């Protein structure tokens, strides 16, 4: 019985490590600049929405591909990032359900800036457009 409990504990810890990653400190990432401005827009969430549907665009509305969208609850728990497709879209369904999460963008090209400390999801699922600013 003791071996079974030890095994199950190891499995649960392993699954937790896969589901959650440490939040990145924006200061540690050369591709992100703190103190920049960006705007987020949220459309009305349909009652049938079951996830946050992100679209990452530049200030001209052009989609940005291959950017990791990561949701965090405080400093302790962050989901693994989901990377945007060619249309700048990424869908994230947090296991904790609807909540107000911090939005972090990972792997953003140095030609753009985004303040990872300034953006949050709405409290309910739906479409979220995240606009990054040009670094120039």
Q: What descriptive keywords fit this protein?
A:
about 140 residues; alpha+beta; Immunoglobulin-like; 5-stranded antiparallel sheet; 4-stranded mixed sheet
* Number of E-type strands: 11
CATH fourth-tier homologous superfamily: Carboxypeptidase-like, regulatory domain
Number of helices: 1
Please report the first level of CATH classification, the CATH class: Mainly Beta
The geometry reads as globular
First-residue to last-residue Cα separation = 62 Å
* Number of domains as seen in the coordinates: 1
Instruction: Write the H/E string, N to C.
Output: HEEEEEEEEEEE
Structure notes:
A hairpin with a 3-residue loop joins β4 and β5. The protein is α+β, with helices and mostly antiparallel strands. 13% of the residues lie in helices and 31% in strands. The protein has a single domain (22-134), classed as Immunoglobulin-like (Sandwich), CATH 2.60.40.1120. The strands form three sheets. Strands 1, 4, 5, 6 and 8 form a five-stranded antiparallel β-sheet that branches. It has a four-stranded mixed β-sheet with strand order 2-10-3-7, with no helix packed on it. It is globular, with a radius of gyration of 16 Å.
Topology overview:
Blueprint: H1 2-19, E1 20-21, E2 39-42, E3 52-57, E4 68-73, E5 77-79, E6 82-83, E7 89-92, E8 102-106, E9 112-113, E10 126-131, E11 133-134
Quick recap:
By secondary structure, the protein is an alpha+beta fold. It is 13% helix and 31% strand. The strands form three sheets. Strands 1, 4, 5, 6 and 8 form a five-stranded antiparallel beta sheet that branches.
